[in-house]
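DM from R.C. (forwarded with permission)

"hey, sorry to bug you on a friday — could you get me a structure for this? deadline for the figure draft is monday and I only need the backbone to look sensible"
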Amino acid sequence: YRTLNATFEGLCRSTLFQDITIHDPTDWLVSHQTEDQTFMDWNRSYRGVKSSKSVIYIQPLGWFTDHRAHLLTWLQKFCSAFYYGVNVQVMPVVPLEKLQCGTRINPSTQRCQLNARDIIEFLKRKRKSNSLCTIAVTMVDLYPRETWNYVFGLASLTNGVGVFSFARYSERFNDVPAETDSLRNYEDWSVSGKLLWRACKVMTHELGHMFGMQHCVYYNCAMNGSNHLQESDRRAGHLCPICLRKLHEALKFDLVERYGAMLRFCEGAVTKSAPLAEFRSLGAWLRAAIEFLEKQKQRQQIKHR
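My reply, with the result:
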């Protein structure tokens, strides 16, 4: 705990965070030699957020029209709370035919895929001058090169752009496609609570990399790596104290205010009009975290009287 101040030391000693565990031989930590990134490691390499580049842009690619457009609103709201203090904006939808990117039929799934590297080049050309980073989202499966089966997402950290797909997070992905050579296979997919929960987690995870955070190996954390959907579902919706301190150093937010913003989002997600039960457990965790921080603050005030 030598690299953490008293607040973060207290969080590390609390019962709020669980150590990362291995559940399956295909899990991330088994198949990847991931080096730990301490706060000091991160602080030495992070270039910092420039005040003139204060906007996170979400760039939807196709599919997000009509009754599915509300997914983008939820993503924008959750990211605004998670990256508290940063302006998060949703860009107009770019039709897939305007991407001019490579496509192919995946031999295993028989579903059409988009070339992620071509999308990265598209985003680099379209990047705005005030962009902290631009993240493209699509419901179409991705591949980075011909020798790869698929990829969940791809990013260029030096250029501040990335793309990721929600396709494999949908319960419909394993359905037999009606037309193996058509992008229309994705058009009738609806937005379920589970898909929204998964989308919010993967969005905030990928944006974390844009802030210089590597995969976390300390706790069950939003920045844990994942090799498969089951492992991704186990990943927490919040940051561990080590990754939280990295983000706090970058954005200088008040911890309780940030947790409060996330809690308000979760409470709005489990109302009668939006019964998204997947956010209920995160909401309960946030209440406990706020209570812990407020009690810790009171103890510190008493100690310094």
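R.C.: lifesaver. The two ends are 25 Å apart (CA to CA).
me: no worries. The mean pLDDT is 86.
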